[in-house]
């Protein structure tokens, strides 16, 4: 992939992540940050559930969307940011497990629009289970005072 | 729309809603439950934000998805439930406001697959502002012990 | 909705529509062009089918996407154009009928990103039947020589 | 992946493909059929274009959706069929090229719902260029006389 000089993206991403009230609320942690790929982990917690006791689809979306956003951050310049225009989530298996791993990867970098794909896994006894996928479309933002970092 | 006898859906939905850990965590409340339409309200809270201080896209998704799910509940029999297969969210304006209103409505009822559309609005001074839309596809579940109510 | 001066959008849209090889191939016709809303009609034809003899999902997508695009054209300046970034289609009933009506409407106008929603109906004996819906996200294009009109 | 005995899926898929009026109209050909993966190729043709002369998004959708459908066919029993419930398409680069390759792969097999992902590429001078991606959700159909093969 053709990328701009993205400087120390790990530092920027970790700093931005700590500003997310929602990630703290979910108990989510940045697990891995690589060029064009970011992972988040989250333990199961009853406060994150829908009515059947599974991880809420909105929680899954929050985690996946955050991995896609920060995967995009690894491809943009330090003074740029991104806003998510839209995403689609497929829920493939109920969100049951001890903890969850979410990975977002850049499918199409760009100078205006970035597309990323994410996958979520339930981790417990036995092999990791694919529980959800996301495709997310983001727009690069430059020079907006309310969208920085 | 051709609907089955759905019994006292308001009671069932309110009971199911209180079982959602995630809705309590978000401070969300069921505001309105009508045949094929459900509304949820939520005050702004810094713990619900992404890195720029706007309402997190995952929080918006959680609220919209819940309105779509319960709009579906108004069209199914008491012994049935639904699972969300997938949804798409468009984020149209930053989630800024004092509180937020989310409305889900059934677009296509069915005996196997139900499609709903949702819209989210920021409420503050001035007119309500459309911040997001959702299309959600759900599957009716019968006879599964882990998916009840 | 806050719209720019869009000049004679009907003339521009009819002219652009005739340049679409795909619309001619499908036998599709522009049926209505109003501010922020465009309709296309198409007769059933066996050459437009998938393996069960229903209207092909791709044909439905082509028609819906075109209504959304031209609905966007009614909100942009004459020297601008749009490219579709992404869309989602829900197929709600098999595409059976004598002819089909597709309607695209602007949900969120904008100076960079436009969101439209479309619905497709099968027309035959009896009431029109909702067969599909679309949400489409478009980007306004300015000053690109290969994207004009 | 855990698959049922799918018999001679290549024969069934080739037969089903020839029943698609739309694939013939587009000049599309089945290029490869493997367990959980199907490819279609299509030469560029001016009759397949949108108003800027690029491959029409609906044509891209038709081809991608067909690869996803037949990838699903490789995982179902001979007496079963599938209907597409919904899909999302991201258009990443203009559809320009001498010919196009579309690949659909099963992401999540299932006994009720199947999820597939597809990618489309423009082929010309130089490396293949990613022009589009799809995520498609399908439902397995059993015992419906109008949905066979």
TrEMBL record, chains A, B, C, D:
Signal peptide: none annotated. Keywords: Hydrolase. Its EC number is 3.1.2.20. It catalyses: a medium-chain fatty acyl-CoA + H2O = a medium-chain fatty acid + CoA + H(+); a long-chain fatty acyl-CoA + H2O = a long-chain fatty acid + CoA + H(+); a fatty acyl-CoA + H2O = a fatty acid + CoA + H(+). Residues 52-124 form the Thioesterase domain. GO terms for molecular function: fatty acyl-CoA hydrolase activity. The keyword Hydrolase applies. It is an enzyme of class 3 (hydrolase). The keyword Hydrolase applies. Pfam families: 4HBT (PF03061). Belongs to the YigI thioesterase family. This is Medium/long-chain acyl-CoA thioesterase YigI.
């Amino acid at each position: 992939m053709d990328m701009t000089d993205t400087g120390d993206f790990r530092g920027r991403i970790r700093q931005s992540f700590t500003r997310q009230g929602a990630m703290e609320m979910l108990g989510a942690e940045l697990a891995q940050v690589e060029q064009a790929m970011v992972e988040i982990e989250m333990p199961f917690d009853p406060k994150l559930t829908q009515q059947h006791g599974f991880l809420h689809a909105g929680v899954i979306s929050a985690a996946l969307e955050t991995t896609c956003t920060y995967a995009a951050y690894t491809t943009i310049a330090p003074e740029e940011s991104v806003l998510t225009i839209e995403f689609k989530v497929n829920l493939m298996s109920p969100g049951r497990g001890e903890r969850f791993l979410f990975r977002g990867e850049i499918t199409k970098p760009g100078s205006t629009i970035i597309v990323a794909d994410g996958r979520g896994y339930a981790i417990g006894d036995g092999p990791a289970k694919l529980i959800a996928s996301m495709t997310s479309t983001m727009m690069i933002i430059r020079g907006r005072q309310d969208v920085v970092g």
